[in-house]
């Protein structure tokens, strides 16, 4: 039964408010004969086989979840008419593969109850939980907190912790970090000033350093924080600025905490009062994050990957990913490695780059930085790669270089970041992604021939490496054909593989040096006479004569392909996609 009395329906949130707070793409409105402004009292499961009271008050204002009923099934019309007769605000059914029948659409149009469908892949438990959390979030008490004049924190989608952190930062006049009860970072506000050392360590590590947690526990700070509803103050010291913290709790349950740090100036006198308001308003956001945040994040990542792959349902994927369908975006790709194992990792086969351990920590940091870089940035991971959709903006910093600057703050990491061209609409996102991936391959290939100690992070935009990416495209197309052929270059490469000789390396260095024996010998770290001997033997043994233009072209192509195979960079390399 509804939690509200019918005579209080004016205080109930509308169906539109509820739908605006749940994860994008979870439900679709098929028919809403009275619009989506109808009031909602509660969300309940609907059993079509249950005998119902004819009193319209039995389901007045309810959202009924018709579990087990598909819109194309024969009983769908009976369920809809039953819901309409009892005054339900809406009924939700499973969409299925065929969609609603014409008869059901006609019946819905003649009634008063809205017909909604649940998208494939969404569990009923998730739908019920998100709708009920949204209902609580839209309650008069919560709305009063969020719209309380200048101290309000309204206008946020349920679970938008980054938005909450930025809003609270504006109210408090400091830097905000939202943490779970285990001191792990859930969100942080954008940084207008250089953070103090403790904030930097916390954000980069996505959690408060263990030694700091132990220090706060032993000093009794956590005991004070978790045992009060008020703000707890920690004075500034030589490692960090002044801190204010408050627990976010739902009844007796602690959901997390909000921390405010002085950000270039002392915290305002009203900071404590603003934190108290923020802690109350944060309850539904943290509750939503804990229960549904991970599932929603997976759904958003799936939608981002669909856009990057050029899915036919791009408009729906854009809605699910939370991006504007008609806004131009560029794709940035960052590929992370543990610098101590770059050689082995970059030489893995296409599916070998699992991106675990240290690499994932780097991606965590990059994803947090991307979220704070510019409103509207969305991310998705695949193996050791992070994909970022960045809304285009004029006169702003390069997002790929911003990510690289962040990556350089993470010890023992190597990151190759590439930016694709701006896509005017959704149809161009897959092309921007392919271009960014090519840039990453160019940067990785350049590093793969270096000693591990000399490998450093690198970044480039597509326009800066057009020639290199064109060569990659050509070699991608030529490589299958080359492997099916035979000839002098093939024989030389096979001999090197079988006997450990270096005829191929010598010819390649000679070609790269435009026939300058001295320069080529220096690159190989051998005497020029040694190089001349190897070139002469390559002619005698295999017929590879660099003076012959045709042989020179074939040698250049074949030796590039051989080098790719030796470094595991054949085709797309260890992308993990």
Low-confidence stretches: 1-8, 51-57, 143-152, 348-355, 570-577
For the secondary structure, the number of strands is: 15
On the 0 to 100 scale, the average pLDDT is 81
Q: How are strands sequenced across the largest beta sheet? A: 1-5-4-3-2
- Work out the helix count: 21
The end-to-end span amounts to: 48 Å
Biggest beta-sheet profile: 5 strands, mixed
Query: What percent of residues are in strands?
Result: 15-25%
* Radius of gyration (Å): 30 Å
The helix-and-strand class reads: alpha/beta
Shape: flat
Per-chain topology:
Blueprint: H1 15-21, E1 27-31, E2 42-45, E3 62-70, H2 76-85, E4 90-94, H3 102-110, E5 114-118, H4 124-137, H5 140-146, H6 161-172, E6 174-179, E7 185-188, H7 197-205, H8 210-218, H9 221-226, E8 232-234, E9 243-250, E10 253-262, H10 271-308, H11 314-321, E11 329-338, H12 342-346, H13 358-373, E12 378-382, E13 385-391, H14 399-407, E14 413-419, H15 429-448, E15 458-461, H16 466-483, H17 488-499, H18 503-512, H19 517-524, H20 528-542, H21 549-566
Parallel strand pairs: 2-3, 3-4, 4-5, 14-15
Antiparallel strand pairs: 1-5, 6-7, 6-10, 8-9, 9-10, 11-13, 11-14, 12-13
Helix pairs in contact: 1-4, 2-3, 4-10, 6-10, 10-11, 13-14, 15-16, 17-21, 18-19, 18-20, 18-21, 19-20
Structural summary, described in words:
45% of the residues lie in helices and 16% in strands. It is of the alpha/beta class and 577 residues long. It has a five-stranded mixed beta sheet, sandwiched between helices. A five-stranded antiparallel beta sheet has the order 7-6-10-9-8, with helices on both faces. β3 (62-70), α2 and β4 (90-94) form a beta-alpha-beta unit. α18 (503-512) packs across α19 (517-524), α18 packs across α21 and α19 packs across α20 (528-542). It starts with 14 loop residues before the first helix and ends in an 11-residue tail after the last helix.
């Amino acid at each position: 039964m509804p939690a509200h009395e019918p005579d209080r329906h004016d205080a109930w949130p509308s169906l539109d408010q509820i739908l605006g707070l749940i994860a994008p793409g979870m439900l679709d409105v098929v028919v809403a004969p009275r619009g989506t402004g109808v009031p909602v009292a509660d969300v309940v499961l609907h059993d079509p086989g249950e005998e119902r009271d004819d009193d319209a008050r039995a389901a007045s204002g309810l959202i009924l979840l018709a579990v087990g009923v598909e819109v194309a099934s024969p009983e769908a019309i009976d369920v809809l008419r039953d819901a309409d007769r009892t005054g339900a605000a809406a009924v939700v059914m499973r969409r299925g593969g065929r969609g609603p029948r014409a008869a059901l659409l006609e019946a819905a149009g003649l009634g008063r109850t809205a017909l909604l469908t649940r998208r494939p892949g969404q569990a009923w438990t998730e739908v019920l939980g998100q709708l009920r959390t949204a209902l609580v979030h839209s309650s008069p008490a919560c709305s009063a907190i969020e719209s309380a004049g200048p101290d309000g924190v309204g206008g946020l989608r349920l679970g938008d912790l980054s938005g909450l952190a930025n809003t609270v930062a504006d109210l408090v006049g400091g830097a905000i970090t939202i943490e779970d009860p285990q001191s792990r970072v859930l969100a942080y506000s954008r940084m207008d000033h250089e953070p103090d050392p403790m904030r930097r360590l916390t954000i980069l590590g996505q959690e408060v350093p263990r030694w700091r947690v132990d220090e706060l526990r032993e000093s009794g700070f956590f005991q004070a924080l978790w045992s009060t509803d008020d703000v707890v103050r920690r004075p500034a010291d030589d490692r960090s600025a002044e801190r204010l913290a408050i627990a976010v709790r739902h009844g007796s349950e602690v959901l997390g905490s909000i921390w405010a740090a002085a950000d270039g100036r002392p915290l305002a006198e009203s900071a404590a009062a603003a934190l108290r308001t923020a802690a109350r308003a944060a309850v539904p956001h943290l509750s939503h994050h804990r229960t549904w945040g991970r599932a929603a994040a997976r759904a958003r990542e799936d939608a981002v990957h669909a856009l990057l792959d050029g899915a036919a349902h791009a408009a729906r994927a854009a809605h699910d990913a939370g991006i504007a369908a008609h806004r131009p975006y560029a794709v940035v790709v960052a590929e992370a490695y543990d610098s101590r194992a770059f050689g082995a990792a970059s030489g893995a086969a296409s599916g070998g780059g699992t991106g675990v351990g240290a690499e994932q920590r780097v991606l965590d940091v990059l994803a947090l930085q991307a979220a704070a870089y510019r409103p509207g940035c969305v991310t998705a991971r695949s193996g050791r790669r992070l994909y970022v959709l960045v809304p285009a903006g004029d006169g702003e910093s390069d997002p790929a270089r911003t990510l690289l600057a962040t990556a350089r703050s993470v010890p023992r990491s190597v990151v190759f970041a590439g930016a694709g061209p701006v896509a005017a609409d959704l149809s161009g996102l897959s092309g921007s992604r392919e271009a960014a991936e090519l840039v990453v391959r160019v940067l990785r290939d350049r590093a793969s021939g270096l000693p591990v100690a000399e490998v450093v992070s690198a970044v480039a935009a597509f326009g800066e490496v057009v020639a290199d990416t064109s060569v990659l495209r050509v070699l991608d197309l030529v490589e299958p054909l080359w492997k099916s052929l035979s000839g002098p270059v093939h024989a030389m490469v096979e001999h090197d593989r079988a006997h450990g000789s270096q005829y191929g390396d010598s010819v390649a260095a000679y070609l790269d040096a435009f026939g300058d024996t001295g320069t080529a010998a220096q690159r190989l770290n051998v005497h020029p006479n040694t190089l001349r001997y190897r070139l002469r033997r390559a002619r005698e043994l295999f017929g590879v004569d660099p003076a012959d233009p045709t042989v020179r072209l074939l040698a250049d192509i074949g030796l590039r392909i051989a080098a790719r195979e030796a470094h595991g960079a054949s085709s797309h390399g260890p992308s993990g996609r």
